[in-house]
Amino acid sequence: MAVDSAISSPLGPPACEKDAKALQFIEEMTRNADAVQERVLAEILCRNAQTEYLKRFELKGATDRETFKSRIPIITYEDLQPAIQRIANGDRSPILSAHPISEFLTSSGTSAGERKLMPTIQEELNRRQLLYSLLMPVMNLYVPGLDKGKGLYFLFVKSETRTPGGLLARPVLTSYYKSEHFKTRPYDPHNVYTSPNEAILCADSFQSMYSQMLCGLRERKQVLRLGAVFASGLLRAIRFLQLNWTQLANDIRAGTLNQRITDPAIKDCMAQILKPDPELADFVTEECSKDNWEGIISRIWPNTKYLDVIVTGAMAQYIPTLDYYSGGLPLACTMYASSECYFGLNLNPMCKPSEVSYTIMPNMAYFEFLPHEPNSAGLVPDSTRKLVDLADVEVGKDYELVITTYAGLYRYRVGDILRVTGFHNSAPQFHFVRRKNVLLSIDSDKTDEAELQKAIENATQLLREFNTSVVEYTSYADTKTIPGHYVIYWELLVKDPENSPSEDALNRCCLAMEESLNSVYRQGRVADNSIGPLEIRVVKNGTFEELMDYAISRGASINQYKVPRCVNFTPIMELLDSRVVSAHFSPALPHWTPERRR
Ligand code: AMP
């Protein structure tokens, strides 16, 4: 029930006193966006004034925006790499941040094939927790009664390594779930999970998923919302259920735990929970043995009000599949965040995915926006495009996000393109347009054009003995299968038809491509099982010429036509698929270990 109007919020009546405080905080931050930004920049520059990086640009104690903008360059990860390498090797002097770097967060964005290492400091955990604490108060405005049940969230930790200097390197969510902030979070009736911490914190993905699914099935009627961080993760859970429901049903029937669960913490905690439930086992068996899984989520978890998953950006490709399995449940995208910094939240989380806008919270970092003009890309140098402050962006325009963080990134280009859709008070709201330079993505992997090109070059070495070359290629992220997989279309020039490439050689080409792709891709294949084997589809000679004819018939200029290196337009896919002469899959897993190659 809503609390009395004395603490009502412009966002709507809060569900409880705690929510009122959170909504009040959002109001304060967004009303004073510009002043908060000014204060945040001054704080960052003041505390880090003696760092090697800032001293190099001679701010001489200035903390104002004008001096900052005139002295500090806009940079990318590659510019920071030498400093980051020194920190990774054990240099504890204040290079980027006055506060000690507590660990590195390994981004899904890569540099030279390896995850980028983002420095972070201990207090950033508080900022992340603060942003998380705002999500349910906003959701409670739109979906009442979430305190009457639980959330089934599939959350995972991933492997971590240490840098040569001894700092931990791990993904931001692994860092967060393993922190005391998460593990000892206070009880909040609106935010109770079916998954025990022990299951979330197990690094073995099978054991973690199995026990989270088992708990979710046991409490199926209590589940009011179902989620994962990204849409691909939730679909992976559904696939897991398809593959493992028999064992899950057996365990439910007997009150036992699958032998493959060996993690002592999970075993202990599940021993307290598990009890035989033959009725539930019959239900699971009946539902899961049906051939048709349409609407399975709503059948198994009938009280689910919405799916909590990110379906913006690259994840939009999963919306039709989620709709299929859920029978069209609402999809809520609640937040926008990265390893570098948590940015903001969606103040209208039950809106349609195509209408999602994120409100950047001005207390999280100092934000600048580089105007992005796609049509003049390359013609207008970055240096002549003036960066705009958070409160000064214009509705309808596209910008690239540039951040200055407490942890020591200064005017750092995140690589995300955002479009301003409106304002909440004086804080702008952004539609996530895309990440720059991403051609293919299934899960958190991001493959750019240069990486794909290199992978093709490496694979084609194997065709030499057949005197065969690849004349044209394009690619496609096939998400109709779970997990999704990369499809590469090849048109070959076979110079000696008597010696055309063998089936085995083309299969090995698939694997050779996978070996060349970046470590996030290979981790998805090997450790997370979130990406399926890469497929090469060989198409008939002349197919790419037909593709060009098609593009020209639709208005492309013949002089400027370039083969698209990634396709997703249905008529083009249909054309390509109708010309396929053979399809080949990677016969093995590529190499991957948590250790970095460099
Ligand atoms: P990572 O550095 O691996 O944590 O990835 C962060 C990136 O994921 C961001 O810079 C975005 O490109 C993407 N991302 C994060 N949240 C969202 C979202 N809500 N919608 C679309 N893309 C997102």
Features:
eight-stranded antiparallel β-sheet; four-stranded mixed β-sheet; 21% strand; binds adenosine monophosphate; globular; 598 residues; 3 domains; alpha+beta; 20 helices
How would you sum up this structure, described in words?
- Residues 358-435 form the GH3 middle domain.
- It holds the Pfam family GH3_M.
- Belongs to the IAA-amido conjugating enzyme family.
- GO terms for molecular function: acid-amino acid ligase activity.
- It comes from Morella rubra.
- The protein has helices at 17-31, 33-47, 52-56, 65-71, 77-88, 124-142, 172-178, 180-183, 197-200, 205-218, 231-254, 264-273, 278-288, 296-300, 319-326, 449-460, 503-516, 519-526, 543-553, 570-578; strands at 101-111, 114-121, 150-154, 161-162, 168-170, 223-230, 306-310, 331-332, 335-337, 342-345, 358-360, 366-371, 388-389, 398-404, 412-424, 427-435, 468-478, 485-494, 535-539, 580-585.
- The model is unreliable at 1-6 (pLDDT under 50).
- The longest helix has 24 residues, at 231-254.
- The N and C termini lie far apart (56 Å).
- A hairpin with a 5-residue loop joins strand 4 and strand 5.
- The chain folds into three domains: 17-120 and 340-435, no CATH class; 147-304, no CATH class; 439-585.
- With 598 residues, the chain is of the alpha+beta class.
- Helix 10 packs across helix 11 (231-254).
- 36% of the residues lie in helices and 21% in strands.
- It has an eight-stranded antiparallel sheet. A four-stranded mixed sheet has the order 2-1-5-4.
- It has 20 helices and 20 strands.
- It binds adenosine monophosphate.
- Residues 107-109, 172, 310, 312-313, 333, 336-339, 414, 416, 432, 435, 444 line the site of adenosine monophosphate.
